[in-house]
Structures
1.
Amino acid sequence: VNVPNVRLQDGHTIPQLGYGVWQIPDGQAQEAVATALATGYRHIDTARIYDNEAGTGQAIRESGIPRDQVYVTTKLWNDDQGRDRALRAFDDSLVRLGLDHIDLYLIHWPKPAEGLYTETFAALQQLKAEGKVRSVGVSNFQIPHLERLIEATGEVPVINQIELHPRFSQPELREFHARHGIATEAWSPLGQGQILQDPVLTGIATETGATVAQVILRWHLQLGNVVIPKSVTPGRIKENFDIFGFELTDEQVDRITALDVADGRIGPDPDTF
Ligand code: NAD
C-alpha cells in the first residue's frame, strides 16, 4: 500500500496517514510502534510530554527500515517555550529518540498568556537552518495565534496539528489553513473512540462495508487532512491502515461533515490551556 503524501510549503512531504502514540507507556511503545511499522505505517507522532520518545525511537531504529523512509514528529512541551529552553528541549528529545534529525517539530500548545510562542518558533527555525529538523510547525493554534505568529516572524508554519473529528471539524480554521498553505493535521481523529456509535457513521459503515473507524479516517483523507489515529490493539492498528481500498461519495463526506457541533471539542481549549 502506498500512503499518499501531503506536500508542505517548505517543499517536504508528510505521509497522510500516521500512527499516534499518546497514552502509550514507554515500556509498551516499542512493541506498539514496531507493530505499526510492520503493518506499513511510515509516520509516527510522539511528543516530549507523552514520555515515550525512548521506546518510540528504539522501535524506529531497530525496525531495519531506512531512516529516510520513516517520518518522525515530536513536540515541544509548554514549559520548554522560550528560545534557550526550546533549543535544549529539542536536543533532549533527539537524544531520547536516538535519532540524528526529526522530520517535524511542533510547538505543542500556544500558551498565549505567556506570549512566548513567536520567540519559540524563531528558535525552531534556527533548528531547521541547522538541519536538525526538516520542517517546523505548530499544534493547537487558533486563527489569532497563527496571524500573530506570521506577522511577528514572517514565517508560516507548514502544518497545524489540531483536534479534528466529525463532531468538531473546525471549518473556519481549515479554511484559514487553506488560504495560507498550512497543512491540517487531525489529532483525536476518531474522537478518542467516543463517536463510533453515531448512527450517521454506523449507517455509512453499512453502506460501504467498512468499519466506522475506517469511514471516519477515509473522511479525513478525502478532506485532505493528515491523520494520526492511535490504538495499541494490533487488529485495530491494521484496520486503521486498511483505508485505501474504498472511497466515500461526496454525499457521504457531506453527511459526516454535517455532524459538526459547536460544543464538540473533547480536549482543552487552546486559548486557556
Ligand atoms: P483517537 O481519535 O486516535 O482515538 C484513539 C482511541 O480510539 C483508541 O484508544 C481506541 O480506544 C479507539 N480506537 C482506535 N482505533 C479503533 C478502531 N479501529 N476501532 C474501534 N476503536 C478504535 O485519539 P487520540 O489518541 O487522542 O489521538 C490520536 C493521536 O493524536 C495521539 O496518539 C497523539 O499522537 C495525537 N494527539 C495530539 C494532541 C495534541 O495536542 N497535539 C492531543 C491529543 C492527541
Note: Residues 20-22, 45, 108, 139-140, 161, 187-193, 196, 213, 228-231, 236, 239-240, 267 surround nicotinamide-adenine-dinucleotide (CB under 6 Å).
2.
Amino acid sequence: MTARKLAAGNWKMNGLAADLVEAEALAKAFPSPKVDVLLCPPATLIAPMSAKVGGSAIAVGGQNCHAVESGAHTGDVSAAMLADAGASYVIVGHSERRTDHGETDASIRLKTQAAWSAGLVAIVCIGETLGQREDGETLDVVGGQLAGSLPDDCTAANTVVAYEPVWAIGTGKVPTLDQIAEVHVFLRAKLEDRFGAEGAGIPLLYGGSVKPSNADEIFGVSNVDGALVGGASLKAADFGGIIGAL
Ligand code: PEP
C-alpha cells in the first residue's frame, strides 16, 4: 500500500511569470489537501514558483535533469540546481524527452540516481506507443522500460513511477479502465518482485489526458495511486478538479 496519493502537474514548455497566479490560486484552494500536490513548471519558473508557494502544501518539481552535478553541458540543468531552486521532485524519462532528445532507459536510470543524490524524488515515466499497443507489445515494452530505467536502490520514498501511454498524452484519448488496470497490476507485480516491500509502496501514477471529468473513474482503478497531468494542470480550476477527485 502506498502512503499518500499524488497529483502531479507537468506544465511542459508552458508558463511565464504571470502564470504563477495559477500556482498561488492552487495553494489557496488546497491549504491542507488529502493528497500530495506537485507542480512541475519549466526550469525558469522553479525558483519563483517555489517562492510563491513556499510554506504551502504545494510542492515544486523539475521536468528533467542532467545525469551529472555540474560541468560543460551547455543548456542543461542538474538535479542539484533544481533542488537549489526549491524543487523536491523531478520528472525523468517523459516520452517527449525520450522522443525529442533520444533519452534511453540507461540515461534515465543515471538521471534517477542523480535526482536521488540531490535529495529529489524521481518520477520515472514509461509507456507504449500506439503501434506497440496495437501489436500486443504493451506489457513487454513497459516491463522493459521499468527494468531498464529504475536503478537498484528504489524505495517508496525516493521513486514514483508514472505509466503514460504515449498515444494518450495530449490527445484526449484515454485507455479503457481495464487497460489501465492491466498495466498497473503488471507494474505493481514487477516492482514487488524486484524491490520487495519497498516495491509495494512505490506510487504508481497514471498519465495521459486526465481531466476533471474522467479523474474520478481513473482513480477508482486499483493500483492507481495518483496522476501525472499535463494540459489540465495549467489552470488551478482544472487541476483542482482532479485533486478533488483523488
Ligand atoms: C503529460 O505531459 O505527462 C501528460 C500526461 O499530458 P496530458 O495530461 O496533457 O495528456
Note: The chain has ten helices and eight strands.
3.
Amino acid sequence: EQIKKGDFDHFMKKEIHEQPDSLTTSMRGRLKDGVVGLGGLKDHMRTIRRSRRIIFIGCGTSYHAALAARPIMEELTDIPVTMEIASDMLDRKALIFKEDTAVFVSQSGETADTLLALEYALQHGALCVGVTNTVGSTLARKTHCGVHINAGCEIGVASTKAYTCQIVVMVMMALAIGSDKMSTLAQREAIIAGLTKLPEKVHDVLKLDGEMKALAQSLIEEQSLLMFGRGNNYATALEGALKVKEVALMHSEGMLAGEMKHGPLALVDEYLPIIVIATHDDSFSKQQSVIQQLHARKGRLIVMCSEGDASLVCPDGRSRVIEVPRVVDCLQPIINIIPMQLLAYHLTVLRGYNVDQPRNLAKSVTTQ
Ligand code: G6P
C-alpha cells in the first residue's frame, strides 16, 4: 500500500495532487485542432441534439460534478438541463420521456441507486448516456453510449480527482453537443483554450497547500462550517461542504448564496466560520453584496476570490482571503474545489481521523 501511495501519507492527498495529470489524461486525444471529439457519443449525437431535455443523474460527488457542468451544458446546447439525485428520482417516480437524454454520472459505475435509476430511464425509452471512471462497469455496459473520464484508479473514499475529471468531461460533452452552433464559436474557442491551460492552473492552485493547512489549523475546534456559492460555483459550495463532512467529520453545509436571506442569515454571528466563493465571473457583483451583508452582521468570513481581487472582496482587510487563479467561468469550479479538498484533508489529519476510510462510508455503495 505504501508503495502505491508514493511520497504521500494518504491516498486522498496523492489523488488531490495527481489532478494536473488526471485532467491531462481525461482530455488526451479528445481536443484536436480546436475541435472536441468524443468517440463514445458520435453515433448518438443527432438524437442528443434533438432531445427535449437533458437530465443529469447521480449521487454524492458525481451529482455535484453534474451540477457544476449544468450551466455550460444549457448555454452551449440550448437544451434545458434538469438535475436528479438518483434515489429521489426513484422515490418520486419522476417523469421521464423517450425524447429525453439521461446522463448518468458515477465514478464507480456500480452505485445501486444510479443503476436502478438507469433501469427506470431505459424502461421509459430515454437515450441513456454514461459518464464513468470504470471501464466494463455495469453503468458502462448498460447505457446506450458514453464517455469514460479516464481519471485513473481512485482509492480514497472521498472523491477528488474523479470529480474534476467528471466536470472536464461534461464540459467537453457540452462543447461537442453545441458544436453545430455558429453563435457560440468564440466562446467555445475560449473554453478549448482554457482546457489546454487547465492542468497548469491546477498545478498553480495546488501551491495553496500550506495556506489551507494553516486555515485548517484555525478551524479544528469548530463545530460547523458554512459555504456559500452561486452560479457555476453553487456545486463548489456543496462539494466543498461534502468533503469536510465526509472526512473531517465536521458539520458543514453548502448553500446557494441567493438563498442566504431566506433563512441562513439567521445563523450568522462573529463565531460561525463562513466560506464565500466569490471568484470573478458574472455573479461577482452579487457575491460582493453577499459579503457586505455578512460583514454587516459581523460574520466571520473566509473569502475565495480571483488573484488580484482581494481588495475588492475585502476592502477593510477584515476577512481571510484565499486567492485562486482565474480561468474561463465554466472551468472555475475545477480550480475552486481544490483549496476545499486540501482544507478537508488537513482538517481530517489535524483532527486525527481516518482520511482514506472515513467511518460509516464506502467507496461504492452497491446496496439500496
Ligand atoms: C459513495 C461515495 C461518494 C460518491 C458516491 C457516488 O457515497 O462515498 O464519494 O460520490 O458514492 O459514487 P459513484 O461511484 O456513483 O460516483
Note: The chain has a mean pLDDT of 96.
